[in-house]
């Protein structure tokens, strides 16, 4: 991990084609901007929507760039800041909390050697606290790029899960 | 003896949710075929006779809603399926989408026929994005077979299309007007009513919004010649209901229960009780916006009326069980953290109220609160419920206000120091 500013993001031709495909899949329908941004975010390694990408979508969809930024900053599943290849989202709802999600979070912090909001040195993991994602029958649970994992009630299970992403 | 029934969930595990042929082989779309031989008003009154109440949480009479939506004038009308169940401990709609996506689609098409809507928007929370392929597939296959599109089943002028929309992690988007803003491609901030959604909803068109479970009941109800559904429950609570039980229970999950099952049967029977002999502290009904109570509720039958008499509501169908390891105050602080995070910040009572309730709860936890602080919490709670812009702020303090009634000891502090 470094404190240097992130290198400017360059929008490659390959990524442009991927973004075009996402917009095609949504019929170039500006009312589907939230779904488009989610899919584009998925296509970017650090799971966020960089500024050049936001402007590219604004120009080609087209939609006002202010609407894009209103959405990026309003919806917690969207980010305009770099995250990581695998954002580990820990449920902080009451249901997971009474099922020891505090120990789950401290195990994750220890194993990854990062705090919530930080990124591992290799850019692979970040830790995020999120509200209930409806996996209360698997509490305590985490979510990584859309997939739910749980119940993670023992440190060995957490370790085994992280190993899957190494 | 506690037992589950299978009515809304009768198709679960009976067919391959990725295959329309598999769905057709168990009688899929027979309800739609019957529906198009009926008058829409008769479908609405059938739903009304079964006393189906909105299963998202508001419990509005669904038959009446459909009848009203049908009566609204407009050349282009819309329907929305609210699959944004964001109340903590609520995951019943997830089970319907996962196990029976075609039935949900069929329910929406029947709804479109009933209220004369041409377009249906299926708005699903981002947290369920792993289920998107199931719905995309179901919609595509239904289009290919002519169950969606123009002149469905050869009925002239019966045109209906389903559009799948995604939320992006905002609890407030479960609220009708916020959901509509979101599906218009904007940030999901709620707006004032009127105009009411049924008259001016998405894209300023007449819109009828129903929950996943509400839609899912309809195809089964249309084919229920034997009156199986009506044989359960009684009074205002007829039929069956999906409940999602979580927290400190051995067997958390979604169960379909007949109305009238006692809370004890649900928690200690179906969910198999609290692990390793801990005592029950409290139960919250209907999600984070729901009220709480203690063990006094255990022998109350789970119906709209009985729960109301006991001071709680059905709400989203969630039942959160908390054992004695968590104090009432700690529970309330966790619940408050949720609303402090999810308030959209647009209206003052909700934005400021949630902030100050959080600070006052912290003060109470530190042992520094006075009786004046407690009175202030009660006052803020009431003001929020009376003057917030949308349902989020109106219900954010339900748990706290009910806790003040049920657990007065938690708030028994001295006067000003």
Task: Compose a concise summary of this entry.
The complex is a heterodimer of chains A (166) and B (417). By secondary structure, chain A is an alpha+beta fold.
Written account of the structure:
The complex is a heterodimer of chains A (166) and B (417). Chain A has 166 residues and is α+β, with helices and mostly antiparallel strands. Chain A is built from 7 helices and 4 strands; from the N terminus they run ααααβααβββα. In chain A, α1 runs antiparallel to α2 (33-43). The mean pLDDT of chain A is 95. Chain B has 3 domains: 20-222, NADH-ubiquinone oxidoreductase 51kDa subunit (Rossmann fold, 3-Layer(aba) Sandwich), CATH 3.40.50.11540; 232-323, Ubiquitin-like (UB roll) (Roll), CATH 3.10.20.600; 328-411, de novo design (two linked rop proteins) (Up-down Bundle). Helix content of chain B is 40%, strand content 13%. Chain B has helices at 20-25, 30-35, 40-49, 62-71, 92-99, 101-115, 132-144, 176-183, 212-222, 263-270, 304-309, 328-342, 348-365, 371-387, 391-395, 398-406, and strands spanning 78-83, 119-124, 161-166, 207-211, 233-234, 237-238, 240-247, 253-258, 280-285, 292-293, 318-323. In chain B, α3 runs antiparallel to α4. The model of chain B has no long low-confidence stretch (mean pLDDT 96). Chain A binds chain B through residues 29-35, 37-38, 63, 67, 70-71, 74-78, 92-95, 97-99, 130-137, 139, 143, 146-148, and chain B through 85-91, 94, 125-130, 165-171, 182-189, 244, 246-248, 252-254, 284, 288, 320, 322-323, 325-326, 331, 334-335, 337-338, 341-342, 344.
């Amino acid at each position: 991990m470094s404190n240097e500013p992130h290198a400017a993001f360059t929008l490659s031709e390959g990524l442009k084609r991927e973004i075009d495909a996402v917009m095609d899949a949504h019929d170039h329908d500006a009312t589907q901007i939230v779904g488009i941004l989610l899919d584009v975010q998925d296509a970017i390694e650090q799971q966020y929507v960089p500024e050049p990408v936001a402007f590219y979508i604004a120009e080609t969809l087209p939609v006002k760039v202010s609407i894009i930024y209103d959405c990026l900053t309003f919806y917690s599943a969207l980010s305009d800041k770099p995250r990581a290849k695998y954002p580990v989202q820990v449920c902080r709802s009451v249901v997971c909390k009474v099922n020891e999600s505090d120990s789950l979070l401290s195990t994750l912090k220890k194993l990854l050697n990062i705090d919530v909001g930080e990124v591992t040195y290799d850019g692979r993991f970040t830790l995020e606290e999120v509200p209930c994602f409806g996996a209360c029958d698997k509490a305590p649970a985490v979510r990584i790029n859309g997939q739910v994992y749980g119940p993670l009630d023992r440190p060995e299970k957490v370790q085994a899960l992280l190993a899957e992403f190494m | 003896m506690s037992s589950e029934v299978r009515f809304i969930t009768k198709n679960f595990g009976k067919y391959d949710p990725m295959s329309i042929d598999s769905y057709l082989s168990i009688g899929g779309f027979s309800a739609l075929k019957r529906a198009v031989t009926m008058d829409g008003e008769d479908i609405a009154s059938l739903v009304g006779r079964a006393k189906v109440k909105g299963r998202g949480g508001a419990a509005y009479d669904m038959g009446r809603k459909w009848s009203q939506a049908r009566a609204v004038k407009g050349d282009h009308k819309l329907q929305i399926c609210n699959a944004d169940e964001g109340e903590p401990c609520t995951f019943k709609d997830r089970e319907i989408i996962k196990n029976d996506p075609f039935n949900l689609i069929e329910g929406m098409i029947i709804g479109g026929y009933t209220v004369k809507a041409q377009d249906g928007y299926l708005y699903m929370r981002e947290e369920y994005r792993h289920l998107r392929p199931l719905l995309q597939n179901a919609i595509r296959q239904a289009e290919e077979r002519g169950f969606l599109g123009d002149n469905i089943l050869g009925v002239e002028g019966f045109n209906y299309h389903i559009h799948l929309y995604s939320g992006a992690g905002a609890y407030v988007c479960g609220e009708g007007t916020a959901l509509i803003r979101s599906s218009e491609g904007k940030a999901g901030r709620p707006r004032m009513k009127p105009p009411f959604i049924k008259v001016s909803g998405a894209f300023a068109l007449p819109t009828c919004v129903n929950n996943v479970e509400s839609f899912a009941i309809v195809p089964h109800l249309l084919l229920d010649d034997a009156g199986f559904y009506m044989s359960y429950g009684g009074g205002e609570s007829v039929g069956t209901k999906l409940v999602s039980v979580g927290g400190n229970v051995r067997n958390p999950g979604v169960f379909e229960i007949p109305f009238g099952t006692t809370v004890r049967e649900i928690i200690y029977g179906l969910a198999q009780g609290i692990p390793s002999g801990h005592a029950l502290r409290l139960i919250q009904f209907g999600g984070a916006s729901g009220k709480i109570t203690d063990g006094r509720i255990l022998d109350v039958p789970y119906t709209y009326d009985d729960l109301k008499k006991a001071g709680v509501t059905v709400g989203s169908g969630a039942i959160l069980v908390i054992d004695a390891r968590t104090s009432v105050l700690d529970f309330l602080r966790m619940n408050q953290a949720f609303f402090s995070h999810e308030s959209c910040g647009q209206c003052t009572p909700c934005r400021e109220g949630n902030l100050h309730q959080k600070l006052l709860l912290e003060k109470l936890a530190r042992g520094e609160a006075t009786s004046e602080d407690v009175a202030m919490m009660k006052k803020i709670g009431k003001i929020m419920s009376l003057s917030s812009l949308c349902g989020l702020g109106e219900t954010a303090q339900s748990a706290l206000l009910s806790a003040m009634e049920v657990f007065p000891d938690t708030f028994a502090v001295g006067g000003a120091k």
